[in-house]
Design a protein that fits this description.
heterodimer, A: 138 residues, D-Maltodextrin-Binding Protein, domain 2, 41% helix, B: 376 residues, mainly beta, Porin, 16-stranded antiparallel barrel, 4 helices, 16 strands, 12% helix
Chain lengths: 138, 376
């Protein structure tokens, strides 16, 4: 009986971490800017177009509907994915802005961030390798 | 014929642009059904039978980067209320001078209100449409120049939007009139910090609004010792001004929005208009429940006030007063609504509006609307 309880308890705890893996916000290894949470949020909402040190910045999203993107929008942008979509639809249909580009896989994002100092993006923390710099994990 | 020409123009724009650059296509749609709650009521174009066309609309937007900071965008929109006639709501060339400054030339939205920029994109806000009591100016677009300047001061993001242009579309203001708005100029300033948004706008325009029904009265007054009344009855080269103040508090679960607008039409036979609304909403799961209260007051001093009575001009005074008095109104409304984001790109909305006419309770009405709104 006890074993069942323990198994049940363990699976309860591990379940969320399976679905919501840690997300790492990454930039190019050469990027030395100090980037706050609010900066990250404003970069992904198109309100900032440069890093705090003045260097040009371009945010890149992972695919719409992906678990990392949902988690990123919830934790960093503090919005649901439909709220983010509503936010961008205001800008798209009034000519005031375009949402960040989307890339299909963590590998594509890693390769782009490793090669372009302007890019800021996020991937599953487990996919991070030494070619990029992690500025935040959550 | 006109529609066909527009479609051909649109298609050729696509083809011309696609020869060089990638085209981004986006769109949005609202399918709205509504009915008043009792048989003798009418409100916002709805009557007491389920109407699917009155509030429905569909829009397509095509834009293309031309390089060197230039881009071209066209948005065509069809409204059910206008027999699905297609109109160019936006058609402009944009130039991104730098990260802060964007210049738009062509047809674009007049930044009257907080929600002007995306007035028809119901997916972008809580209601099915923003409150009609405030959002009731006779035109929304203009042809001309716009400049959008974005800057950040600390954590405050500021947007200054300047416009200059005019609107010559055929508008239905009284029968047989062809309204013209020239030298439209104004500014809108929006300041945002985290959960707080503040907005203020001032715009003015020259109005030329001939009203055929008033011509006999105008001619009548010209031959009296009071030609000033004729001038006030005529809307030619008169200046109208508009002020908007708005705020938005957007927390994780709670949203509060308010807007106040004041339209001033001096030396014209049309009424001034003061309106406001306040909306509060609560988000839970993928739902947003909201309540809105608004008031709308149209006032007009009689333009015959300087004319002494008993000088045999009653035949002119009475119909002149009747015309201006008929525009006086006072109303308030409460709207209860629910937005349900049941899908990644679509939401379902339900709204009930209770409208009270403070001057004539025969105009009181209840309106139930439901909408399926989407962006793509």
């Amino acid at each position: 009986m006890k074993i069942i309880k323990v198994v049940l308890l363990t699976s309860l705890f591990s379940f969320p971490s399976l679905v919501f893996a840690d997300v790492a916000v990454i930039v190019n290894a050469s990027n030395t800017a100090t980037i706050s949470d609010s900066d990250i949020s404003r970069l992904f909402l198109g309100k900032l177009k440069a890093f705090p040190d003045g260097d040009k910045a371009a945010a890149v999203n992972s695919k719409f509907g992906s678990a990392t993107r949902n988690e990123f929008e919830k934790k960093i942008l503090k919005k649901s994915s439909s709220q983010v979509k509503a936010y961008w639809s205001k800008l798209i249909f009034s000519g005031k802005g375009k949402p960040p580009k989307e890339l299909g896989s963590d590998n594509d994002i890693l390769a782009l961030v490793a090669s372009d100092p302007a890019i800021i993006s996020y991937i599953d923390a487990a996919s991070v390798d030494s070619t990029v710099k992690v500025i935040k994990t959550f | 014929m006109k529609n066909l020409k527009k479609t051909l123009l649109f298609t050729s724009m696509f083809v011309a642009a696609s020869a060089q650059a990638e085209i981004t296509l986006n769109g949005f749609a609202s399918i709205v059904a509504g009915t008043t709650t009792s048989s003798d009521e009418a409100l916002y174009g709805f009557e007491n039978d389920f109407d699917f066309s009155q509030g429905s609309l569909l829009a397509l937007q095509a834009s293309s980067d031309l390089g060197e900071g230039f881009s071209v965008t066209a948005q065509i929109l069809s409204r059910g209320a206008e027999d699905w006639d297609t109109n160019f709501e936006w058609a402009y060339v944009a130039y991104e001078a730098n990260d802060n400054l964007r210049i738009l030339a062509g047809r674009q939205r007049v930044p009257f209100y907080m929600f002007s920029d995306f007035l028809d994109v119901s997916y972008a806000y809580a209601w099915i449409t923003p409150p009609t009591g405030v959002y009731d100016l006779v035109f929304d677009t203009f042809d001309g120049l716009g400049a959008i300047y974005n800057t950040s001061v600390g954590e405050f993001d500021t947007t200054l939007h300047l416009v200059y242009g005019g609107n010559n579309s055929e508008l239905a203001i009284g029968e047989g009139s062809d309204a013209e708005f020239k030298n439209l100029a104004g500014a809108a300033l929006t300041v945002t910090r985290d959960w707080l948004t503040l907005r203020a706008a001032y715009l003015q325009t020259e109005l030329n609004v001939p009203v055929d029904a008033l011509v006999p009265l105008i001619n009548g007054w010209r031959s009296t010792p009071f030609p000033g009344v004729a001038d006030d009855l005529e809307t030619s080269k008169d200046i109208g001004s508009f002020i908007e103040l708005g705020f938005q508090l957007d927390f994780e679960n709670i949203i509060v929005v308010g807007e106040f607008t004041q339209l001033t039409l001096d030396d014209m036979p049309f009424s001034d208009d003061d309106s406001f609304y306040v909306m509060a909403g609560y988000r839970f799961d993928n739902m947003l429940a909201h309540i809105t209260y608004g008031e709308d007051e149209n006032s007009k001093d009689r333009i015959t006030d300087g004319v002494p009575v008993g000088v045999g001009l009653d035949a002119l005074i009475d119909p002149t007063n009747a015309f201006t008095d008929s525009q006086i109104s006072e109303s308030n409304y409460v709207t209860l609504g629910l937005r349900w984001d049941f899908h990644d790109s679509a939401a379902l909305k339900f709204e009930y509006t209770s409208y009270s006419d403070d001057l004539n309770s025969n105009n009181d009405a209840g309106l139930f609307r439901t909408a399926l709104v989407t962006v793509f």
